[in-house]
Amino acid sequence: MVRQVKKPDKNKPVLGLSVKGNPEIWDDTWVNTTCGGCYGQCAIRGHRVNGVIVKIEGDPNSDFGPRGGICAKSEAMIQALYDPNRYNYPLRRTNPKKGLFEDPKWERISWDEALDEIAKRLKKIRAENPHKLLHGGTPGPGSGPDLPLGFGVFGAVFGTKNWYVGGAGLHCGSGSHMGAGLYHASWSIVPDFKYCNYAIQMGSNKGTASGHSLGFNMRLSADARSRGMKNVVFDPICNFGGGKATEWVPILPGTDGIVAMAIVNIILNELNTYDAEFMKLKTNGPYLIGPDGKYVRDKKTDKPLVWDAKDNKAKVFDDQSIGDYAILGEYEVKGLKCHPSFQLIKDHVKQYMPEQAEKESTVPVSTIRRIAKEWVEAAMIGATIEIEGEKLPFRPVAAVMFRGGQGHTNSAHSYIAMCLLNAIVGAMDVPGGTLGWPAYVEGYPDTGRFRMVPYACKDGMLTAGSFMEHRPWPIEDSQVPYTTLMKELTPTASFSPHPVTSDFDKYWDKLGRPYEIEMAMIFGANMIRSTQSREIAEEFWKKIPFIVTFNILPNEFCEGFADIVLPDLHPLEAYCLFGTHGPFFNHPIGMEGWDFPVRQPVVKPAYERRNKLEVLWDLADRLGMREEMNNYYNVYFTSFGGEALIGGDIDSIRHLGDIDPEKVVQLIKPDEKITYDEMMDRALKFYFGDEHGLEYTLKNGPVKWPKKPKEAYWRWYVDVRIPIYMEHIAELKENVMKNAEKAGIELDWEQFTPLTSYFTPQVGKELSDEYDLYSFSYRDILHNGTYTMEMPWLDEVSRQNPYTYNITMNADMAAKKGLKDGDLICLESPYGRKTTGTLKTMQGQHPQTVAISACSGAWAKGAPIAYGKGTNFNILLESDFKHACPVCWSQETAATVKVYKIDHRIEFDGAGGDKL
Amino acid sequence: MIGTRPYEFMVKYTPQRDWIEGHGILIAFALFFGGIAGGLYLVSLYFDSMWGMFVAWILAMVTGMTDMAHLSKPMRFWRMILKPKSSWISRGFIFIWLFLGAAAIQMAISYWAGGTAAETVFKVLGGIMAFGVAIYSGFVVGYVGAIKLWNSAIIPILFVIAGVTGGLALLMVISVGDSILSTDVAVALRAVLIGYAVCLAIYLWVATYESTAARDSAMRIIKGNLAPVFWLLVILLGIVIPIIMLFASSATAVLIIAGILVILGGVALRYSILKAGVYSPLVPSE
Amino acid sequence: MRWGMAIEQKRCIGCYECVLACKAEHFLPPDIFWNRVLIGESGKYPAVTKLIYNIRCNQCADPACVKVCPTGATYQRPDGIVVVDEDKCVGCRYCMIACPYQARSFYEDGNAEYFPGQGLTEHEKIGKTLYPHEVGVVQKCVFCKERIDAGLAAGLTPGVDREATPACVIACPTKAIHFGDLDDPYSEINQIIKEKKGKAFHPEYDTQPSIYYID
Hints:
By secondary structure, chain A is α/β, with parallel strands linked by helices.
């Protein structure tokens, strides 16, 4: 290519770029794309000068992000793109030993050689038993729909159900995803910052640390704070969430649930105020519950019965003649004494007195009472607001919880308890209240496509138009475990820690060891540092004969365990269709417009890096799988096209046979072998019209259109209810217990109760005189996953931050233990797990806790910047059923520890790098 | 008290680093040489010692060279005289050049045309410039409002007295061959040492209640990481032992040792003051 | 005309993008920062507030650094921006000593690499052509004067138009930083400072900083 050298024009200044002198500039291009720094996937613009990316800025014209601004992780992507340590060619391990600190002794191979070998092994496994393939990873630097489109569909066609998302349920939260799916048809929840006046955050960082929707949350929450929104943050540490609170309430990890229950108790039973209309029409509060704890059902239709207070008789819940739903009292139906579930809840929460909550959580009684009163006053039950001509209920209060609050063995109940707080004042998906990420998309006005509408399903409950990973509703039946994840045992589970656990073998043995995992295909993940307990993980991964990984940067997992590493594209050199698995995952909330940013390369991929989906298609061709995959893609795209043919979740993709082929639009012909950008083009045209294909989108930006109030605040536009009484858990329990027995699994069956309750988390049970402090980790805005410490800019500012690379403790507690700032300390769990780091004392931390930000402590030799920086918290965690929530299988993310001074960083002994 | 962790930058008292770490240590020497050059010339005028004047001239040259050695762009040194209107370094450089000129002429005149009016004129001129050379570093440091320990009216006076002390000590060592002169100088040195000690004590004492930052600095010197250097080199070896020695004897060896110790103490003084300088935090912590 | 900033503390979340946007914009070498984020705490447990301050050169109206510079390399432009002429700076660092806000940096190691021992990346290399830094002199925030000057020449308004506005201001995801003309009584920045009671940063040093903080 001949470079057109433009002589610098002294009269025409270079705009939007600081330039000294008169350098030659022959390429000055801004490229709209999406960030890959975290799950936020904000719309960004990359500035390319003379073929090199020099700057990243937010897209000022997109609601999908901070509108022109961006966070530090995004800027630092430049350094990840150009990191000299990146994987550039396929590599093969020549050191047969695998382990935490093993040197892989990479040998460079060609793509053909790599794919031939991988395909050969895949063929063999597929012929024997496809379940022997374990595939997965965390979406990492944002694969968006590549997750289902790539690995999900590949696995489904291949025939394996062993899909393992490492670190999920640890870095995020199965309780959240279960609960938000059930109550909001969404992946998580966030206050409606535009109108909310009083927000409660329990172990969450909305707009203050990395994660889904960080981009627009930063922007919206800042506006809210500036406007004077009250922000009450329950958090053991006053750093990110607590740092922007109007009131920081220190709390012990895992006890948020009982505080929420105490507040609900005060509101329902002392203040006697609640949104009765919401209870009657939008929840299963009026559903009659029999002595067995389950619905009293109409014999003919099997629908749950309610009591019509006007006609004084029982009717099915959706009977149009119902005059008034009774939510209190005791009634008799066919000789059975039964109560509306709301009555049961109201009575049940009486046991959660604020005094008990204080004892468990250390939150003072006065604070709990005051917040309950403030909550109810601020909720303005009965108020309405007009938005764009639509009159809507106005409830400007929102209680949200994410990772920290529910990252314990009482995850499901803690999360539901907080949802109750919203439900009893009707602050769900209405202006000012708690919003899920968009669950209602009417579709692009011109085509009516990309449509996703929540609807009522079994028992009138809210069902998501699209979801992923698990189906929140209707609940599937429990099955005897047949995958190594065993999630099918408990259908309310979102992610499973198995099989990378210390007790997996016990259960697999009891089941007769149906098969062994012989191969793993992992992308964009660090299965040895992002997951709990590297010792337990090492034992598991060491045993797998053949592991293939797709990665951008070297990490501990690749080095220690991968047999073949394939070089992945960095987001700045890649295409990706959208930045989302669906609007319910991370799209802007409230009245923010519909926006579908796409990713395109700012620079062409260098060396032999390849798009991982095209690599998968290459493999699919070698296995004869491409035709079936094309068919799946057609179903996937069509399902957003008009009818919710499938849920979009990976499991429902497998029910392909049930779908009427007439309804599927054939975007890709069976025998076509298209490229990734061709697929993008067809999908974009299908959704948004023939004139809005890839070329148009890349040049003019994605289509945008305004949101309607009924989409933003859909709750009262769709006739759906939510199960505040979790009757489905009562229905499930018996079968789960029976199936569990076949595998020798013992869960905490007490938690399988339909009434939201508080259970002391496992971490609380492990407190003792010797192990007297709770240790936990939390999200940092500078970091995401385990790769950000390798970016020199992020490393530099991390060192300038007092908390990011240090272990923090309350100053008084540290003094009591004879520790001071700068000491090298060791945290040791009751199970003998040890991790070390430098101490920094704080006032803003609960005295009984020790905190570590993110999960640093890298030891990979291929990541020299990250090596030894910060502390690896996950070493302290256990991985087994005992440390997982029995209902949703979220991990126990806190550990009790004892703290003492140490002379060197023992967890690096054997790592082979510099002595620490 | 250390306050050197990267996240404590301007959050705890932050010691200055540019004029003491790495190349920065040359500033301590430059301050010292400036003081002793000016001080030696002045006492040489008083005691009428040609050798003293000559060594002072050399030391003034060394001051300039030390300053230049500290620069990262020494070839641009000539620019440093351009801002005497506002910069004490400019003024100081001018003083040094004028002193070198005046003192050279004065020494030439004294050597070849001693006793003339011209000699007196240039002695006066040289003396004024020497005083400037001795005092300007005190103003350079004292002008810095950001470092409370330095931002004191006492510091220029302290630096002059320290310079005169050093000058006397050096003259004493140079003139051991002339026992009358060296004894006279020794007697003067005894007295000036006491005055120097008093001035130093007042300086540090006032610093402890001038502001919290000055107090933090003073505590570093008196009790903190600089205490060994201060108490051992500046006070014990630099003041106390020489005073005792000089009162005890006038033997040549005693004079030489005492002189060298005083000089050593002088270097340690500039080092301590530079290293103890801290900036007040911009953000309070705990 | 006097350029200034107003920073809304309530909005700032301490994400460090202002720091990195500046590093990217000017290809700053390792360990050199033209602006910083300082983190502190106030209060005693449990009544604690986290303090986050984004600081940079305050482009003071009465700058201590300009007065002490012996060569005149540090000077103040008519629009208030304090600048270092890299051709005149001798590296005596008096300006660095004199700044009460410790806003300046000294570029010592011209061979520093972001990936030590692994050579310069494409990004670092192009930086040396687009925005070279002279080794051995003092450097600091200049309110992105190149952006301002180029923007004004093209008829744009600094503080309003992105291309003419300092990189840190447009990079902030919470829009915490405002930029404008302090000498214009009707400018948006003056209105914000007045309405929200912006306070100059540590006015006791008498340098009249041009950056105001709003609690």
